[in-house]
Design brief:
The chain is α/β, with parallel strands linked by helices and 296 residues long. It has 10 helices and 7 strands. Helix 1 crosses helix 8 (238-250). It is globular.
């Protein structure tokens, strides 16, 4: 009998944060099931694998991949197809979250956010799908967010990108079922980490955040502190979310959506059972120090 072919798992943004937690979790999973991991990151982040004691081996590849670069997307997928027989599990994790009100996002900044969080993951999925359909097996796991089911002030373009990812993923879920290819959205809420310190700002939102004479200053000031507290107090961690990703890989028929944290489940229940008008009023009234917003 031929030895079982390891499942080939391609992870984007695997050198830091949730991506690194997923990589570590799947490295542990290799002891229980045959996996070949392809860990990718931008060139400037490749050294982080070494800092995390992750090195290439027979069943671990480390590859450069800026997901917004068409040539690099094609190169990585083609190498996997030629050498390993194709991608069995695609984990679209790489992303970015700009903090900005709608008025403070220029068109180039908006397109940059959408390119990273929506267009590029869908393009990567498009490249691996012919092989999955041919084998009549495969999994696409897209890391979404609570921001993909509800929008928060000062995170407008981020939510727009995740809403788009959710919509395309839901369509893919139906399109691919005839070929036994599953699509799953992982929806984390707040995770206990320092990620809030690394959130980028647009040019205008950075100015408004620092200048208390700006009209939107209170929006940024209070939301920044609210998010910081929520991140510090969160029960979910990158590792607990990574465990949910690993479970999806093991499942024969995973669901379309998986809640990554308790707050994600809570917000989903609120959306489902509260009348929409009351739901929006309730969330608005509970924004941090909302009575101080718009005072200028």
């Amino acid at each position: 009998m031929k030895p079982e072919r390891p499942q080939v798992v391609l992870i984007t943004g695997a050198s830091v944060g949730l991506g690194l937690a997923i990589a570590r979790r799947l490295l542990d999973e290799q002891r229980q099931q045959p996996l070949h991991l392809v860990l990718t990151a931008r060139r400037s982040s490749l050294d982080r694998f070494k800092q995390s004691d992750i090195a290439e081996s027979e069943r671990i590849w480390i590859r450069e991949l800026d997901i917004t670069c068409p040539r690099q997307r094609e190169t990585v997928v083609d190498e996997i197809q030629t050498t390993l027989g194709g991608v069995d599990v695609l984990i679209n994790n790489a992303g970015v979250a700009y903090r900005s009100c709608v008025e403070h996002v220029t068109e180039p900044e908006r397109l940059h956010q959408m390119n990273i969080n929506f267009r590029s993951p869908i393009e990567l999925a498009r490249h691996v799908l012919p092989g999955m359909r041919a084998r009549r097996a495969g999994k696409i796991i897209n890391i979404s967010s609570v921001g993909g089911m509800m929008a928060m002030p000062t995170m407008s373009v981020y939510s727009a990108s995740k809403f788009a990812l959710e919509g395309a993923s839901e369509a893919l879920f139906y399109e691919l079922r005839p070929w036994n290819v599953s699509v799953t959205l992982i929806q984390p809420g707040f995770m206990r980490s320092d990620a809030f310190e690394k959130v980028p700002y647009t040019i205008q939102s950075s100015r408004a955040s620092q200048d208390d004479n700006e009209p939107y200053h209170e929006h940024y000031y209070h939301m920044e502190r609210f998010i910081e507290k929520a991140m510090h107090r969160a029960l979910a961690t990158p590792d607990s979310v990574a465990a949910k990703v690993a479970k999806v890989i093991r499942q024969k028929s995973p669901p379309l959506r998986v809640y990554g944290s308790m707050d994600a489940l809570l917000f989903s229940l609120l959306r489902r059972f509260l009348p929409r008008r009351f739901y929006n009023w309730f969330l608005y009234r509970n924004l941090p120090s909302i009575r101080k917003w718009g005072a200028r």
